[in-house]
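Hello,

Our lab assistant flagged a job as stuck in the queue for most of the afternoon. It eventually completed. Since we weren't sure the result was trustworthy after the delay, we are filing this so someone can double-check. Below is the sequence as submitted and the structure that was eventually returned. Let us know if re-running is recommended.
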Amino acid sequence: MHMRNIFKILVLSAAVAVAAACSQSRAEQMKLAEKLQVRCTPEVLALVGDKIPVDLTVTYPDGYFHPKALLQVTPVLVYAGGEEQKGPTFVYQGEKVMDNFKVVPKSGGSVSEHFAFDYEEGVEQAWLELRSVASYNGRDIAVPAVKVADGTIVTQLLADAGGAYSYKKDNYQEVIHEQTEGQVMYDYNSSTIKGSELRSRSIRELQAALDAIGADPRYTVKGTSVVAYASPEGGQAYNAKLSDQRAASAQKAWSKVTGEKAPDNLEVRSIGQDWEGFKEAVENSDLEDKDLILRVLSMYSDPAVRENEIKNMSKVYTEINKNVFPELRRARFITEVDYQNFSDAELVELSQKAIDVLDEEGLLRVASISDDAARKAELYEKAVQKFGSDRARFNLAALALDDARPDAASRYLSAIKESDADVLNAKGVVELQRGDRKAAADWFRKAGTPEAKANLGLLELLDGHYDAAATQLKGTGGLNGALASLLAGRLDEAASRISCNCARAEYLRAVIAARKGDAAGVQKHLANVEAKDKRLYEQSRKDVEFAKFR
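-- returned structure --
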């Protein structure tokens, strides 16, 4: 029964009908009163935030309220199992009663009250009734209860109230690009490769790396190159020619260096004066005036001007000529390779048989593809134990939040060494799940991430501020934005914000159809709900939203 319906109250004329000798006939006349009107807003009770608000208006016609009578009215929510939740008791008095209650004159009038019930499980099928007691001349007359409304809309509970957060991703690389190289050094103004250079440590390490690459089928050679340089001394044109000569000699030495014939696609490059190498060498040196040298490099782009300015630093130039320039007279032998890393299936097997082989990224990847929460936790704990992984700690906190264990999540988050915006947002979710919405909002505002924005919108939704929630949740994804628009009464907007076909989305579509009076739409979308989620469908059978369509 909708709350805006006008109900006939059968007994309240007791207060105006009772006389000093209240006869049985007068008592019976109380039940004949048909003009007393009760109106409640909303038409059907609805959960808003944490409360179920009610606006009640009672209109008393002329001659109904005895000037010396009192009337106590108590709204009561009665649950299907018989439990009750009583609202506040309101007392009204006739105009001749010497007290401080609201006065209802004999000529009639209306009284309005605003109150709210707390949300409790079972309100969906609870009904609201008014229980009244009329008092006159020292006698109380219990007025039969009057049912005002059936059921309570709890559509707000469709909100995803657990908070928005995401697991930290691994940086596991399926293919790792690597580069191995060795180099030969040249004497001043020379392009001849000495035999000792072909036996140098750098070349021996390159040869060992190439042997390992050739023996491992996971490696694929992607490119080979020879790159030659000259130190930035003696003039740009001269050094360009010298660099070309070194590139040619290095190309000829390829087979001696690698033990293989030079491939057809061998890339040969001559850089000329190696100013980049010079800058890097100066940055990594202990030269007394290195800041001044670096300033010269940044101020002048002309190689000749650069060389002249550096030569003018006579004191430091001697040291550069001795310790820096010789390292730039070189040619590099470079091999580019791709390494095919372990597949997901291989990672899973390794995690079961040889978990210590896995690095941090491997552990995080295996955890991410596991469907077992307990196994995920084991792998994350291993990453914390072995590598001190903050991402693993964060993901352990996320697992705890998934299970609504905010205290456990808080402990993991507190152990993270460097908090980022994701951690701040997760701390807000902890407070949200603990029920401290103010503290949660503070964390979400500090985080400032898209997920934190969605969580601030969720707080508005849970507080019953539907317009604010609909605005805050724009562009955040998920179904909470659609729900906020629905509860704000913007049905078309709500429908446009639903993009998926999951069970909860279909349920929202059914509610929108119901509020539009679209019976066929209700039937269609609830059928989809039944196919996707039996439990949610069973909930719909008790939902007051669909009362008219059963």
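-- support follow-up --
The delay was a queue issue, not a problem with the job. The result is valid. The chain has 24 helices and 15 strands. The first strand starts at residue 37 and ends at 41.
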